[in-house]
Each structure stands twice: as C-alpha cells, then as structure tokens.
Amino acid sequence: MASTTLICDTQPWKDLKAHTEDIKKTHLRDLMNDKERCESMMVEFDGMFLDYSRHCATLETMDKLYKLAEAASLKQQINRMYSGEHINSTENRSVLHVALRAPRDAVINSDGKNVVPDVWNVLDKIKDFSEKVRNGSWVGATGKPLKDVIAIGIGGSFLGPLFVHTALQTDPEAVEFAKGRQLRFLANVDPIDIARNIAGLNPETTLVVVVSKTFTTAETMLNARTLREWISSALGPSAVAKHMVAVSTNLTLVEKFGIDPNNAFAFWDWVGGRYSVCSAVGVLPLSLQYGFSIVEKFLKGASSIDEHFRSAPFEKNIPVLLGLLSVWNVSFLGYPARVSMESNGKGVSIDGVPLPYEAGEIDFGEPGTNGQHSFYQLIHQGRVIPCDFIGIVKSQQPVYLKGEVVSNHDELMSNFFAQPDALAYGKTAEQLLKENVSQHLIPHKTFSGNRPSLSLLLPSLNAYNIGQSNALLGCLSSWQAMNIELLLKVLFGASILLTSGELSWVRYSLATQVRKQLNGSRTKSEPVEGFNFSTTTLLTRYLQASSDIPAEPLTLLPRI
C-alpha cells in the first residue's frame, strides 16, 4: 500500500521550493557562461547525446532534484516495476512493457512467472506468419499474394505503430524491405477514414489486422465489421479467414467474428496501451510491412534504453534527467510543457489525495521548420514554454545541390543549433538601439530570453534509433505512487526556423552564423569558433559524426 504522504510535504520538495526564488534571480545569459556547469549538463549514452544546459537550473538545482527523486523512492519504484510488482494499483496489474523487448534469455516475472518465454513465443509466431505472407506462401482466397495491410486499432493500438511506420518509411534499409507493399492504419470511426483506407486497394491482395485486446472496442469493431463486409462482398464470407487476422486475447470472440483463432496473436494485461507498440499490436503490422529483422532492430533499440533506465545513476540517466527537469519546470517554475500519457495530468495522488501543486503538462509542437508561422512567436515573446529540440546527425534521405552553401540537412540543422541559444539569450533593447532600430519598434523586437530548452542529438534514424526514441519517450510510467510526474518532454522538432516579422533575426543572424560555420568546417576544415561552450560542443560532435560527407558533394536527390 502506497504511503499517503504527498511528495510536496517532504523536505527535498520544500528545499526546491525555496531554491526557486534564487533561480528566478538568474538569467540563462549568465548561466551559459559557466563552462563547468554546461559540461556537467551533458550526457551521452549509446550514440545519443543530451545537452540540458539551457534549462533554468544550476548544479545545486540538480542536486536538489536528485534528493527529491530519492525522497520519492524512484530507484525502488523502478526496481518494483522490473520485478513485476503491481505498481498499476488502480487496475492491480504489473507494468512490464520492458519484457516485450527483453532478450530471449532474460528473466522478468509477473505473479511468480517468467513472462519472457511467452513474449518470444508470440514474436516467433509473428516472424513465421509475416515471412509466409511476405514470401507468398500465405496467399489470399483467390491465390494472390497479400501485399497490402490495413491495421485497425485506436489509441495506443494505433498511435505507436503509426509513429514507427512513419519513421521507417524513409529509412533506406526499411524501404528496401517494404518494396511493393503498403501499410495503412484505420482508427477513426468516421466513414471518410474507411474510404481513404481502402481507396486504391484490392480485397484480393489485402490483409486486415484487427487489434483489440478484448475484441469489444466499439470503434475498432465497427471498422472491423465494415472491412469484413468489404472483403465478403467481393470474395465471399469464407474469404475472411484468409484476409483477416487478430491481435487479441479473446479467442472466443475472434472465432465468432470469423477469424481463425490460430491467426490470433496474443498480448497481456500487463501491457498498457501506451506501450503496446512493442507487442503484437505493433510488431505484427510492422513485420508484415518491413520484415521481422527490421522490427527486431527496433526492439533492440528500445531494450537498450530500458537497461539504461534501470541501471544508470540518476546524474547520467537520460530518462530520469528529462523527468526531473519536467517536474522542475511544471511544479516549481510553473511552466507548462506537455501531457505525456493518457493517465497523467490527474489532480489527485494514487490514494485519491488532491494535489496542491501543478501535475500536468500541455504538449504541442511540429517537426523541423513547420511551425515557423504559428506558435514560435509565442515561445519567444509570449509565455515561457520549455522546448525540446531533437536533431539527427545523418539524414535518412540526404539531398545535396551543387552550388549551395550547405546541404539541405545542414540547413535544417543550422536552425537546430541556433534556436536554443535564441531562446536562452534573447535580444535586449540595448542591442536593438545599437542596430538603430526605431524607438517605437523596440518593445516589439525585444526578446527577454531566459527560456529553457534542451537538445537531444541522435546519430541517425534507423530502426534501432527509432526503438531508442520510442522507449525514451515512454519508459517512465506515471509513477503515481510517488505523487510526482517524472516524465519526458516531447520533441518540438529537429529544428525551428523563424522568418516572419520580428523573428527574422533568428534566421538571418543566428542560423546564418551556424550555416557559415558548417560550410567553413566542411570545405576548409575550420575549427568551431564564436559560440558558447554548449553550442561549440554540439556543433563539433555533429561535424565529427558526419565527417564522411564530401566537402563539395555532387548533386544528390532523395532515393525514394
């Protein structure tokens, strides 16, 4: 039984509350001059590099946050999860998504039973079935190969698999394995979505995967009945057994629906919907599209983060650090950030005690430069919203145009490197006066800065790295038993480009400086100079990790 003592009643919480007043007197312009501080706020693991030096925090802040994690028994809670205890107390279940991507020889118990062999039995079944479909030994009712897949599910049965599919669609290795195949996802019950999903598809070559643990989810089952009718009307009722399979534990309803129970792929009640992409929910449709070998790399990437989360000390533990910073921003500094999971944002503790502090975040964002004419003025000149910038060293589809100063990807990354400093430093009235800006325009062109962000640099976006990213964004549960939200913040995109109105200085000044540096370093081997310690470190890592790019590459266009 969890303690009813709220975390806000502990001494570490009270110490952080008092410390907040000291932090409010500081500015990131000054904090970023402290090389020791910046260096201490950089963490590397398995190719991933995190720089959180642009958060409104000092080394003292982090020490106090580590003490808060200790007061919340975070390490013990992590161990409880891995040992299979029922930390999901509202449903009285284990929380063992980590078992879904554990090595075959791992031991992870739930209710006294090692569940890993069961997981691998299902994975082996998926591998066998997906290979038969892909090589044409499993065919449809008319003998034609099944090259198109529609996965029906909603919530976690849709969002996670779609996320991975979207990321893999442009990965060169995955593209090769997916040639001649299509994967579509149907979630919304709106008939327009059904029309879009079946548009251009032939029932003779289509396989439908119905994902519902209980096989009673209203939207999913209505969509499933609709596609069953689509198949039956074209090929006859008997064709359903060849053209529809299930991811479910309710074999009785699966068989009643017309699907052969032998073609049902199981998952377990200790798999929360938000984590189910690593179960048959995601692995089956993704294996049908890309082959099991690609999906297995995804699972290994996720497993890497799981082990890191379990074993790394807090000061080097990327998921824990991101979670603690989220707590700091939301519950102490009062900054909104993101809603991380479906069960978070509650106003009570696990014991039903009302929380006297903010515990939920608001999440929004866009990849790359897509948000430039919408909310970026808000994050620069409106309310303070902590941002996460996630960049990739090597593009899945590099583009080079002869005569350009930098490649398309370097152009994107110029903004990735410039934007965090723009948020941290801002632009003062004094600077504007020196630029001879009209007095009446100065309030409109002033940027206060001191807006926190972090940068996460990934080596590439292959199946393994996608697995890492997926686990990183989901390896921390709600941890309601601690009455604290140790959660991750979602990416605001690989970079941000501002072009309109008062925001043009980011593009025409800061990003231009980075662009010139990238060009000079690639073409003349110039050292990285003129930036603060953190940006210098990030730029240097980026250039070193992408040093195989030729100084003057020939024109290269996307290979898809």
TrEMBL record:
Record InterPro entries: G6P_Isomerase (IPR001672), G6P_Isomerase_C (IPR023096), Phosphoglucose_isomerase_CS (IPR018189), SIS_dom_sf (IPR046348), SIS_PGI_1 (IPR035476), SIS_PGI_2 (IPR035482)
Claim: Metal-binding is one of the keywords in the record: no
Any one Gene Ontology molecular-function term assigned to this protein's record: glucose-6-phosphate isomerase activity
Known EC number: 5.3.1.9
Family the entry assigns: Belongs to the GPI family.
Record field: catalytic activity: alpha-D-glucose 6-phosphate = beta-D-fructose 6-phosphate
GO terms of biological process kind: gluconeogenesis; glucose 6-phosphate metabolic process; glycolytic process
CDD domains: SIS_PGI_1, SIS_PGI_2
One Gene Ontology cellular component annotation held by this UniProt entry: cytosol
Official protein name in the record: Glucose-6-phosphate isomerase
Record's subunit section: Homodimer.
Keywords, comma-separated and alphabetical: Cytoplasm, Gluconeogenesis, Glycolysis, Isomerase
Organism: Gossypium arboreum (Tree cotton)
Pathway(s) the chain acts in: Carbohydrate degradation; glycolysis; D-glyceraldehyde 3-phosphate and glycerone phosphate from D-glucose: step 2/4
